[in-house]
Amino acid sequence: MSRTKIGILTVAGLAIVAMVACRGGRQAGRPSASVESLMKARGLNEADVVAALKTYTPTGKPDEYYMFASGGHSGQVLVIGVPSMRILKYIAVFTPEPWQGYGFDDETKRILADGSPKGKALTWGDSHHPALSQTNGDYDGQFLFINDKANARVAVISLKDFNTSQIVRSDLIQQDHGASAVTPNTEYVIESSQFATPLGNTYAKLDNYEQQYRGAVIFWSFDRDKGRINKEKSFAVEVPPYSQDLASSGKLASDGWVFINSFNTEEATGGTREGKPAIESGASQSDMDYMHVINWRKAAEVAASGKAKPIKDLRVIPMQTAIDEGILYFIPEPKSPHGVDVTPDGKEICVSGKLDTHETIYSFEKIKGLIDAKTFAGKDRYGVPILPFQQSIRGQVEMGLGPLHTQFDGKGYGYTTLFIESKVARWSLSDLKVIDKIPVHYNVGHLSIPGSDTEHPDGKYLVALDKWSIDRFMPVGPLLPQNLQLIDITGEKMQLLYDLPIGLGEPHYAQMIRADLVKPWAFYKPVGINPVTHDKDPFAVTSEKEARMERRGDGVHVYMTAIRSHYVPDQIVVKQGDTVHIHLTNLEQTKDATHGFAIDSYNINLSLEPGKTNNVTFVADRPGVFPFYCTEFCSALHLEMAGYLLVEPKGGTESSAAVR
Ligand code: K7E
Ligand code: CUA
C-alpha cells in the first residue's frame, strides 16, 4: 500500500471513529468523498475501517504486546506482535531450523540430543502449551517454557535472546499434554502424561492396563539463576492411568496447589477388532471424570524427605504415598473435560466439559474445607479420595456447545471458547451468566488474553486460535492454514479485528505479555558470548589477530572470526578423515549485523548474530574442494564473504592445518 493510500485510510478511519462515537449526529463526522470512494472500491464498511485502525501499526512503531504461540507440529514457537499481528520470529525449539542454525552447531545439537530418547534423533515435535515465567504470580518476562506432546519434552527458552537454551525429557513417560504450566514463582514447570503407559516404559500388555499402566505428573525444578531445569531436584507424582490433561497452578488463596483435569477415567484402550469400543466412545461413557487436586508444596517436601522412589531417571512419589500424605485428591468434573483455569484471585477453578454445555466453577475455599474435614464421597478404584461434587462447586455457567478453554480479563469476566458453536462466550464471574458471544472462524480451541493465568490479567485483546479456516483466505489446496483472530474486548460487545493465517503446524495455545516487560538483548556483548551459557565461550577469539588453526589430539581446531565482509582464516586445509572443530566468532557489535556460515554439501549452516561464538564439529570424510560462504545478506560485498575448505585425499602430502 502506498503512503498516500495509508494516509487516506487513516483519515477515513479517524473520521469514522468520530462518526461511530456520535451515532446520533452522523453529519458531524462524514468521511470525505475520496475516503468514501476508497471504501467503496475496496468493499469496506465502517466496522472494517474501525477494525483496521485498531490494528494498523505504522512502520517503525512497535506493538503493545508480544504473543508467544505454539507452532504445533513444526516444533517451534511463533512470536507475534499484537495488535498488528505481525509475525516477528519463529523460535526453533524441538526441530532443527536452518536460518537460526538450530540443530547444526554443537550447542544446539546438544540441546536436541539432551531431549531425545536414547539412540533416537527426533526431527519433529508437537508443541502445545507455552508458559511464561512468573514472579509473585505475574509475568516477569524472563523465560518461556513449552512442551512437545509427541515426545514428552519440555523446553526452556531464554527471553534475553529468544533462543531455546534447554530441552528436558524423562524416560518416565512417553508423551505429555498437560504442560507447560508454572507455579507462581516458577519453582516448578508442570508436565503430565496424557496416554498412560507403564512408568519408565517397561513392557506390559494392554490386558494389564489397570495393574501396570500409570500416569505421572512431573514437577520440573527450575533454577532461575542458571536459567535451567534441574533434573536431580525434579520429581513426579504417580497418578492413575486416566488421561491427565491440562494443569493450572493455584495462586493467592490456592497457592501451593495445582489442578489438573482428566478424561478417560473409563480406561478405554480401544480394541475395536475384539469388539471393544473405540477409545473415543469408550472414554465418553461416564458422566464424570476427575479433576486432580495436588498439593505440590507437600509433594516437594515428601520428595525431599526420601519417600520418592527413583524410576529410570526421575524420583517418583508412589500413588499410595501421595494418598497417605494428603497430596492427591479427586473431584468429579463433567464430562470429558478439557480446560482447567484458576481465576486471577486464586479463589475459583473453572473447568469446561467438552461433552457438557456447562462450565463448572469450583470454590477453593470449599475444596480446602472438605479436605481439612476429610469429607469424602468415596474413593476411586486406586484408593484416591473423592470430594463430593455439589459441595465443591460454587455453581455452573450455561455456556453452549463444546466449551474448551477459559481466560480472564481481570475486569470480572471469563471468556470461554465453544468449539462446536465456533464462538467465544464472555461471561460474568459474579453472577455466572453469559453476556456476549462472538462468532469465530472456525472450530476454536484455545484463546489467549495477556496475563490470564497471572494475578493481574490485562484484558484489552483476546486472540482466538481457530483450528479451521474454511472460507477465510485464498485457497491453497486441501491443507488450509489455521486462523488466529484478534478480538477487541474493551467494549460492551466484543469486536473482531483481524485474521492472521498460520501456515504452519497447529498453534494450540498462546500467551501474551506486555511488550515493556520483555527486555531482549540487541546483540551479544561483549564479543564471544556462547548462546546457550550466555557466558564467554571458551573457544571465542575476539580479534582477527587471535584467529588461527591448530592440529591437536582430537583433530583440527579452527579459531575463526567473521566481520563485514570476510572470515579469518578464509582457507582451511585439512586431511581426509580429520575431525574439524570450527570455533567461529562474529566480531560485530552492531544491531542486525548477523553473518551466516555454510559449508557446501557438509550440511552445515550457522547463524552468527553480532558478538556470538558458535562451535561446529564435523568429520571431513569426503575429499575435495568445498567453498564456504555467508548466508546472510550482510553488506554490499556479502557475496564476496566466502572461503575454501580443502580436504586433501588420504595419503596426500600437503602441509595441513596452517593459517592461510
Ligand atoms: Cu489443542 Cu491445549 Cu493441546 Cu485444547 S489443546 S484445543
Ligand atoms: Cu556476512 Cu553476508
Task: Please explain how this structure is put together.
The protein has ten helices and 42 strands. The protein is mainly beta and 660 residues long. The strands form ten sheets. It has a six-stranded mixed beta sheet with strand order 8-9-10-11-16-15. Strands 33, 34, 35, 37 and 40 form a five-stranded mixed beta sheet that branches. Strand 21 (378-379) and strand 22 (385-386) form a beta hairpin. The chain starts with a helix and ends in a 12-residue tail after the last strand. The structure holds sulfanyl-(tricuprio-$l^{4}-sulfanyl)copper and dinuclear copper ion.
Notable characteristics:
binds dinuclear copper ion, 660 residues, binds sulfanyl-(tricuprio-$l^{4}-sulfanyl)copper, mainly beta, 3 domains, Methylamine Dehydrogenase, Chain H, Immunoglobulin-like, 6-stranded mixed beta sheet, 39% strand, 13% helix
Beta strand count: 42
Low-pLDDT stretches are 1-9, 11-28
Query: Helix count, per DSSP?
Result: 10
The number of distinct structural domains comes to: 3
Cα-to-Cα separation, first versus last residue: 51 Å
Q: What strand line-up does the widest sheet have?
A: 8-9-10-11-16-15
For the residues shown, what is the average pLDDT? 93
Largest sheet: 6 strands, mixed
User: What proportion strand?
Assistant: 35-45%
- CATH superfamily label of the largest domain: YVTN repeat-like/Quinoprotein amine dehydrogenase
Radius of gyration: 28 Å
The distinct bound ligands, ions and cofactors come out as: sulfanyl-(tricuprio-$l^{4}-sulfanyl)copper, dinuclear copper ion
